[in-house]
Design brief:
The protein has 255 residues and is mainly α. 57% of the residues lie in helices and 0% in strands. The protein has twelve helices and no strands. The protein starts with a helix and ends in a 22-residue tail after the last helix.
């Protein structure tokens, strides 16, 4: 992404103009897919709108720079850099913490960003944490599910989507999480969001743990690589034939 293009986005959306904010924005642009990067920026814009709606002031009531960095890096676990052996939210939180630490961010702020990223799929938990963690999850939930969209200022969603299109977000994000699970079943244990997403794409009655154990045992065998027929017999991780991910609850249907 060119500096001029980034500067235009910062100016049009009034994003935090600090060295850390710029680093987070450009790092996410470099490491994540465009649909993830757009989603991350939109999530911050919606999080900030929720803060204003709650009469929360940046600087005194919450750390706006840290909110921006948390939103920008919250899906870094879906990048090649962030793809480790943990659920993508925790992998991403670890990578983001290292990113912030390298730039001299204080440990107490890093801990907040870690929570914001690790808990961004944990509705009902993030909202009980500090303001940055709660706002991060709220902004992400608005962009993904349309949660609290009725509280957004009129025209804001249309404005931000015109600048940063969704790019088939719901399908693309689900596919990215599922593809990681195919390659490394440890990343989608049953009691996690990736595990729940995986379960919704298994044949009726199947249990994610059964599929994970089967895939893991095959992958552990020296020289054995699962082909498509084997994946099908052992519970393919893709939707049933003719099915697509359900997006009926999306606030802003992919455009």
């Amino acid at each position: 992404m060119s500096t001029d293009a980034a500067r235009s986005v910062f100016e049009r959306l009034d994003l935090p103009d600090t060295p850390l904010a710029w680093d987070a924005y450009l790092h996410a642009a470099q490491e994540t897919a465009a649909f993830v990067h757009h989603h991350s920026v939109r999530s911050y814009v919606f999080a900030r709108a929720h803060a204003r709606n709650r009469d929360l002031r940046p600087g005194s009531d919450y750390d706006d720079e840290l909110l921006f960095a948390s939103c920008m890096l919250h899906d870094i676990g879906l990048s090649e850099q962030g793809n480790g052996d943990q659920r993508f939210e925790v992998d991403g939180a670890d990578v983001a913490a290292a990113f912030l630490r390298e730039r001299g961010v204080e440990e107490h702020r890093i801990a907040i960003a870690w929570d914001a990223i690790a808990l961004h799929t944990s509705e009902g938990i993030a909202s009980r944490k500090c303001t940055v963690v709660a706002l991060t999850q709220a902004g992400i939930a608005t962009d993904i599910l349309g949660a609290q969209r009725e509280s957004l200022p009129a025209g804001l969603a249309d404005e931000v989507h015109a600048l940063l299109p969704r790019m088939d977000l719901a399908y693309a994000l689900s596919d990215a999480i599922l593809n990681q699970a195919k390659a490394n079943p440890q990343k989608a244990s049953p009691m996690t969001f990736p595990g729940e997403l995986l379960r919704s794409h298994l044949p009726y009655g199947a249990h994610p743990a059964d599929t994970i154990n089967t895939l893991a045992s095959h992958r552990a065998a020296d020289g054995i690589e699962l082909n498509q027929d084997q994946l099908t017999r052992h519970g393919d991780l893709t939707p049933a034939v003719g099915a697509r991910h359900d997006e009926t609850n999306m606030a802003f249907i992919d455009r």
